[in-house]
Amino acid sequence: MKSGIAVSIKNVVKDFYLPHEKEDSLKLKIINHFKKNTKTGHNTYHALKGINIDIKKGEFIGILGRNGAGKSTLLKIIAEIYQPTSGSISVHGKLVPFIELGVGFNPNLSGRDNVYLNGAMLGFSRKEVDAMYDSIVEFAELEQFMDQKLKNYSSGMQVRLAFSMAIRADGDILLLDEVLAVGDAAFKKKCYDYFDYLKEKKKTIIFVTHSMAQVEKYCTRAILIEKGKVTIDGNPSEVASAYNHLFE
């Protein structure tokens, strides 16, 4: 492994096996039954097709691509939410995934109780959560709502609380998957200020977004994924321009 590498992705392939919607005819069922080297009754969806990327420590990388291109699948493989069909991932440092924020939250508990529950899942003691509680609530701008059940929160409120919790886990490598898709302008500004802080601290960031403005402002490198393959890897402005050309 090269020194200075935070994440190494080697020839990663990810296939999903999707069931056929219907097999109405007896003929189709017989054909599928006698097919060799296939998963009977399934279609194979090739989400990632031989991805090779080395990410250096301290890089802020934007991952771009149309919906269904494979961006989120790649992040979930790096986070070990998915296992690759083939290939390998090597991670060097503490990884914190900001993917599916709020996983582990209990909708029937109050916001306050969920802070302590999520804090425990992140490895914090109750005393540590006590010490950071006020700053978590203030960042999320939910002071008036912490005793309400989470199921009564809007999606934006839930993301604000989850994001405010997640940033307490001090990692070396952060995975961000469209975490700012919901939330008002004031909260988004707080998140962008946090991005500036991460850059100053030389954290490694892997950031999936559809915002070219964010890519050009924050990223030191960008990667375009199209149909499960890396098509461009390099200067953020050039990659953003190539992404925009996909829609012309």
Radius of gyration (CA) equals 21 Å
Largest beta sheet: what is the strand line-up?
5-6-7-3-8-9
User: What structural category arises from helix and sheet content?
Assistant: alpha/beta
- Name the poorly predicted regions: none
Give the ordered list of helices and strands: EHEEHEEHHHEHEHEEH
Strand tally, please? 9
Mean pLDDT: 87
Q: Work out the helicity level.
A: 25-40%
Main β sheet profile: 6 strands, mixed
Query: What is the count of DSSP helices, taking H or I runs of 4+ residues?
Result: 8
Shape: globular
N-C termini distance: 40 Å
Q: Quote the beta fraction.
A: 25-35%
Which key terms come to mind for this protein?
248 residues, alpha/beta, 6-stranded mixed sheet, 3-stranded antiparallel sheet, 8 helices, 35% helix, globular
Describe the protein in words.
Helices cover 35% and strands 27% of the residues. The chain is of the alpha/beta class. A 6-stranded mixed β-sheet has the order 5-6-7-3-8-9, with helices on both faces. It has a 3-stranded antiparallel β-sheet with strand order 2-1-4, with helices on one face. The model has no long low-confidence stretch (mean pLDDT 87).
Entry summary:
The longest helix has 16 residues, at 185-200. The protein is built from eight helices and nine strands. β6, α6 and β7 (204-208) form a beta-alpha-beta unit.
